[in-house]
Amino acid sequence: MLAGVEPWPSASRRRTMLRCKLPLQYNLHASSQALTSQSVVPLVILPAHNEDQTIGLLVDEIVTRVGWPVVVVDDASSDQTAAIAARAGAHVISLAVRLGAWGSVQTGIHYAGSRGFDYVVTMDADGQHDVMSLASVFQPVATGSTDVAIGACPQRVSGLKRFTWHLFRSITGLKIEDLTSGLRAYNRKSLDVLESPEATLLEYQDIGVLLLLRFAGCSITEVAVDMQPRRNGRSRVFPTFASVLYYVMYTLLICVGKRKAQ
Q: What pTM was computed for the model?
Protein backbone atom coordinates (compact mmCIF):
# COMPACT_ATOMS: atom_id res chain seq x y z
CA MET A 1 0.00 0.00 0.00
CA LEU A 2 1.29 3.50 -0.74
CA ALA A 3 2.85 5.34 2.19
CA GLY A 4 1.30 8.50 3.50
CA VAL A 5 -2.20 7.99 2.11
CA GLU A 6 -5.39 6.62 3.60
CA PRO A 7 -6.17 2.98 2.70
CA TRP A 8 -8.82 1.99 0.20
CA PRO A 9 -12.34 1.95 1.70
CA SER A 10 -12.73 -0.42 4.64
CA ALA A 11 -15.50 -3.00 4.96
CA SER A 12 -17.68 -0.46 6.76
CA ARG A 13 -17.07 2.10 4.01
CA ARG A 14 -17.92 -0.49 1.37
CA ARG A 15 -21.31 -0.98 2.97
CA THR A 16 -22.15 2.58 1.86
CA MET A 17 -21.74 1.57 -1.78
CA LEU A 18 -24.73 1.81 -4.05
CA ARG A 19 -26.21 -1.68 -4.25
CA CYS A 20 -27.18 -2.10 -7.86
CA LYS A 21 -29.59 -4.43 -9.56
CA LEU A 22 -30.65 -4.81 -13.17
CA PRO A 23 -33.93 -6.04 -14.64
CA LEU A 24 -33.84 -9.82 -15.05
CA GLN A 25 -33.29 -9.70 -18.81
CA TYR A 26 -30.11 -7.65 -18.32
CA ASN A 27 -28.71 -9.24 -15.16
CA LEU A 28 -25.75 -11.55 -15.67
CA HIS A 29 -24.34 -13.34 -12.63
CA ALA A 30 -20.60 -13.58 -13.19
CA SER A 31 -17.97 -14.97 -10.88
CA SER A 32 -15.78 -12.44 -9.09
CA GLN A 33 -12.76 -14.77 -9.18
CA ALA A 34 -9.84 -13.43 -11.20
CA LEU A 35 -9.10 -15.26 -14.45
CA THR A 36 -5.73 -17.00 -14.36
CA SER A 37 -5.00 -17.71 -18.03
CA GLN A 38 -2.28 -15.34 -19.22
CA SER A 39 -3.73 -15.51 -22.74
CA VAL A 40 -6.79 -13.54 -21.66
CA VAL A 41 -5.23 -10.96 -19.34
CA PRO A 42 -6.60 -7.51 -20.27
CA LEU A 43 -4.98 -4.11 -20.14
CA VAL A 44 -6.75 -1.80 -17.69
CA ILE A 45 -7.14 1.74 -19.06
CA LEU A 46 -7.71 4.64 -16.67
CA PRO A 47 -8.40 8.02 -18.32
CA ALA A 48 -7.55 10.71 -15.78
CA HIS A 49 -7.65 14.49 -15.52
CA ASN A 50 -6.59 16.03 -12.19
CA GLU A 51 -7.22 12.85 -10.20
CA ASP A 52 -4.19 12.92 -7.88
CA GLN A 53 -6.43 12.37 -4.84
CA THR A 54 -7.58 8.95 -6.04
CA ILE A 55 -5.32 7.66 -8.82
CA GLY A 56 -2.52 6.29 -6.65
CA LEU A 57 -4.80 4.23 -4.44
CA LEU A 58 -6.72 2.94 -7.44
CA VAL A 59 -3.65 1.84 -9.40
CA ASP A 60 -2.14 0.24 -6.31
CA GLU A 61 -5.34 -1.75 -5.70
CA ILE A 62 -5.49 -3.02 -9.29
CA VAL A 63 -1.82 -4.03 -9.35
CA THR A 64 -1.73 -5.70 -5.93
CA ARG A 65 -5.21 -7.22 -5.68
CA VAL A 66 -6.12 -7.99 -9.30
CA GLY A 67 -2.68 -8.31 -10.86
CA TRP A 68 -3.48 -6.84 -14.27
CA PRO A 69 -1.31 -4.31 -16.13
CA VAL A 70 -2.51 -0.71 -15.94
CA VAL A 71 -2.07 2.26 -18.25
CA VAL A 72 -3.09 5.71 -17.06
CA VAL A 73 -3.81 8.22 -19.82
CA ASP A 74 -3.16 11.58 -18.18
CA ASP A 75 -5.35 14.10 -19.99
CA ALA A 76 -3.08 17.15 -19.58
CA SER A 77 -3.58 17.31 -15.82
CA SER A 78 -2.30 20.32 -13.89
CA ASP A 79 -1.73 18.32 -10.69
CA GLN A 80 0.42 15.29 -9.78
CA THR A 81 -1.77 12.65 -11.43
CA ALA A 82 0.95 11.34 -13.77
CA ALA A 83 3.71 11.16 -11.16
CA ILE A 84 1.53 9.46 -8.54
CA ALA A 85 0.17 6.94 -11.06
CA ALA A 86 3.70 6.02 -12.17
CA ARG A 87 4.88 5.53 -8.58
CA ALA A 88 1.90 3.26 -7.93
CA GLY A 89 2.90 0.95 -10.78
CA ALA A 90 1.05 2.18 -13.88
CA HIS A 91 2.46 2.90 -17.29
CA VAL A 92 1.57 6.55 -17.91
CA ILE A 93 0.78 8.24 -21.22
CA SER A 94 0.84 12.02 -20.73
CA LEU A 95 -1.12 14.03 -23.28
CA ALA A 96 0.21 17.48 -24.17
CA VAL A 97 -3.29 18.85 -24.80
CA ARG A 98 -6.67 17.79 -23.44
CA LEU A 99 -8.48 15.26 -25.60
CA GLY A 100 -11.39 14.71 -23.24
CA ALA A 101 -12.67 11.50 -21.73
CA TRP A 102 -13.20 9.55 -24.95
CA GLY A 103 -10.01 10.84 -26.57
CA SER A 104 -8.08 9.57 -23.56
CA VAL A 105 -9.75 6.17 -23.68
CA GLN A 106 -9.14 5.87 -27.42
CA THR A 107 -5.47 6.73 -26.85
CA GLY A 108 -5.30 3.86 -24.37
CA ILE A 109 -7.01 1.53 -26.84
CA HIS A 110 -4.47 2.38 -29.55
CA TYR A 111 -1.69 1.74 -27.03
CA ALA A 112 -3.22 -1.63 -26.14
CA GLY A 113 -3.31 -2.63 -29.80
CA SER A 114 0.31 -1.61 -30.32
CA ARG A 115 1.32 -3.84 -27.38
CA GLY A 116 -0.61 -6.87 -28.60
CA PHE A 117 -3.50 -6.82 -26.13
CA ASP A 118 -6.72 -8.35 -27.42
CA TYR A 119 -8.73 -7.38 -24.34
CA VAL A 120 -9.20 -4.07 -22.55
CA VAL A 121 -11.04 -3.04 -19.40
CA THR A 122 -11.76 0.64 -18.76
CA MET A 123 -12.78 2.24 -15.50
CA ASP A 124 -13.10 5.74 -14.05
CA ALA A 125 -10.19 7.22 -12.10
CA ASP A 126 -12.31 8.97 -9.46
CA GLY A 127 -12.67 5.96 -7.16
CA GLN A 128 -16.33 5.38 -7.99
CA HIS A 129 -15.78 1.83 -9.26
CA ASP A 130 -14.76 -1.07 -7.02
CA VAL A 131 -11.65 -2.80 -8.36
CA MET A 132 -13.03 -6.16 -7.23
CA SER A 133 -15.73 -5.79 -9.90
CA LEU A 134 -13.14 -5.91 -12.68
CA ALA A 135 -13.08 -9.70 -12.97
CA SER A 136 -16.88 -9.94 -12.93
CA VAL A 137 -17.17 -7.48 -15.81
CA PHE A 138 -14.33 -9.05 -17.78
CA GLN A 139 -15.41 -12.68 -17.46
CA PRO A 140 -18.22 -12.79 -20.08
CA VAL A 141 -15.89 -11.14 -22.60
CA ALA A 142 -12.96 -13.44 -21.81
CA THR A 143 -15.13 -16.55 -22.17
CA GLY A 144 -16.52 -15.43 -25.53
CA SER A 145 -20.07 -14.91 -24.28
CA THR A 146 -20.15 -11.31 -25.50
CA ASP A 147 -18.01 -8.72 -27.30
CA VAL A 148 -18.59 -5.96 -24.75
CA ALA A 149 -19.55 -6.06 -21.07
CA ILE A 150 -20.70 -3.06 -19.05
CA GLY A 151 -20.53 -2.78 -15.26
CA ALA A 152 -24.01 -1.36 -14.70
CA CYS A 153 -25.51 0.53 -11.79
CA PRO A 154 -28.51 2.57 -13.00
CA GLN A 155 -29.45 3.49 -9.42
CA ARG A 156 -26.42 5.80 -9.15
CA VAL A 157 -28.03 8.60 -11.18
CA SER A 158 -30.92 10.96 -10.56
CA GLY A 159 -34.47 10.41 -11.71
CA LEU A 160 -34.11 13.08 -14.40
CA LYS A 161 -31.09 11.37 -15.89
CA ARG A 162 -32.84 8.00 -15.81
CA PHE A 163 -35.73 9.59 -17.67
CA THR A 164 -33.29 10.91 -20.28
CA TRP A 165 -31.77 7.45 -20.63
CA HIS A 166 -35.24 5.97 -21.12
CA LEU A 167 -35.94 8.56 -23.83
CA PHE A 168 -32.69 7.77 -25.59
CA ARG A 169 -33.30 4.02 -25.43
CA SER A 170 -36.69 4.60 -27.05
CA ILE A 171 -35.12 6.63 -29.86
CA THR A 172 -32.15 4.36 -30.57
CA GLY A 173 -33.44 0.93 -29.66
CA LEU A 174 -30.45 0.30 -27.39
CA LYS A 175 -31.48 -2.28 -24.79
CA ILE A 176 -29.01 -1.07 -22.18
CA GLU A 177 -29.89 0.10 -18.68
CA ASP A 178 -26.71 2.00 -17.75
CA LEU A 179 -25.74 4.06 -20.78
CA THR A 180 -22.90 6.07 -19.23
CA SER A 181 -20.93 3.62 -17.09
CA GLY A 182 -17.19 3.85 -17.70
CA LEU A 183 -16.59 0.36 -16.31
CA ARG A 184 -16.41 -1.75 -19.46
CA ALA A 185 -14.63 -4.71 -21.02
CA TYR A 186 -13.91 -5.08 -24.74
CA ASN A 187 -12.60 -7.89 -26.96
CA ARG A 188 -10.58 -7.52 -30.16
CA LYS A 189 -13.65 -7.34 -32.42
CA SER A 190 -15.03 -4.36 -30.51
CA LEU A 191 -11.60 -2.75 -30.12
CA ASP A 192 -11.14 -2.76 -33.90
CA VAL A 193 -14.37 -0.75 -34.15
CA LEU A 194 -13.22 1.71 -31.49
CA GLU A 195 -9.84 2.22 -33.16
CA SER A 196 -11.48 3.12 -36.47
CA PRO A 197 -11.95 6.69 -37.79
CA GLU A 198 -15.70 6.32 -37.22
CA ALA A 199 -15.04 6.38 -33.47
CA THR A 200 -13.57 9.89 -33.54
CA LEU A 201 -15.45 13.12 -32.73
CA LEU A 202 -17.26 11.45 -29.85
CA GLU A 203 -16.96 13.14 -26.46
CA TYR A 204 -17.43 10.36 -23.93
CA GLN A 205 -17.19 6.57 -23.69
CA ASP A 206 -20.89 5.91 -23.60
CA ILE A 207 -23.87 6.44 -25.88
CA GLY A 208 -22.04 7.20 -29.11
CA VAL A 209 -19.64 4.33 -28.57
CA LEU A 210 -22.52 1.94 -27.89
CA LEU A 211 -24.29 2.98 -31.08
CA LEU A 212 -21.17 2.42 -33.17
CA LEU A 213 -20.66 -0.99 -31.60
CA ARG A 214 -24.26 -1.94 -32.32
CA PHE A 215 -23.96 -0.75 -35.94
CA ALA A 216 -20.87 -2.99 -36.26
CA GLY A 217 -22.74 -6.04 -34.98
CA CYS A 218 -21.02 -6.32 -31.60
CA SER A 219 -22.91 -8.04 -28.79
CA ILE A 220 -23.24 -6.11 -25.52
CA THR A 221 -24.00 -7.50 -22.05
CA GLU A 222 -24.51 -5.73 -18.72
CA VAL A 223 -23.24 -7.04 -15.39
CA ALA A 224 -24.69 -5.60 -12.18
CA VAL A 225 -21.96 -4.07 -9.99
CA ASP A 226 -21.89 -1.95 -6.85
CA MET A 227 -20.47 1.56 -7.03
CA GLN A 228 -19.41 4.12 -4.47
CA PRO A 229 -21.01 7.57 -4.41
CA ARG A 230 -18.76 10.14 -6.05
CA ARG A 231 -16.28 11.56 -3.58
CA ASN A 232 -16.89 15.08 -4.84
CA GLY A 233 -20.64 14.38 -4.92
CA ARG A 234 -21.12 15.60 -8.48
CA SER A 235 -20.40 14.39 -11.96
CA ARG A 236 -17.71 16.36 -13.77
CA VAL A 237 -19.07 15.20 -17.09
CA PHE A 238 -22.82 15.80 -16.63
CA PRO A 239 -23.26 18.30 -13.76
CA THR A 240 -26.73 19.45 -14.88
CA PHE A 241 -29.76 18.00 -16.62
CA ALA A 242 -29.27 20.50 -19.46
CA SER A 243 -25.78 19.11 -20.08
CA VAL A 244 -27.21 15.59 -20.26
CA LEU A 245 -29.86 16.62 -22.77
CA TYR A 246 -27.35 18.51 -24.90
CA TYR A 247 -25.04 15.52 -24.97
CA VAL A 248 -27.80 13.10 -25.92
CA MET A 249 -28.81 15.20 -28.93
CA TYR A 250 -25.20 15.88 -29.95
CA THR A 251 -24.29 12.20 -29.85
CA LEU A 252 -27.40 11.13 -31.71
CA LEU A 253 -26.71 13.58 -34.55
CA ILE A 254 -23.04 12.57 -34.80
CA CYS A 255 -23.80 8.84 -34.91
CA VAL A 256 -26.69 9.15 -37.34
CA GLY A 257 -24.56 11.37 -39.57
CA LYS A 258 -21.69 8.88 -39.58
CA ARG A 259 -24.08 6.04 -40.33
CA LYS A 260 -25.62 7.83 -43.32
CA ALA A 261 -22.18 8.76 -44.67
CA GLN A 262 -21.13 5.10 -44.91
A: 0.77
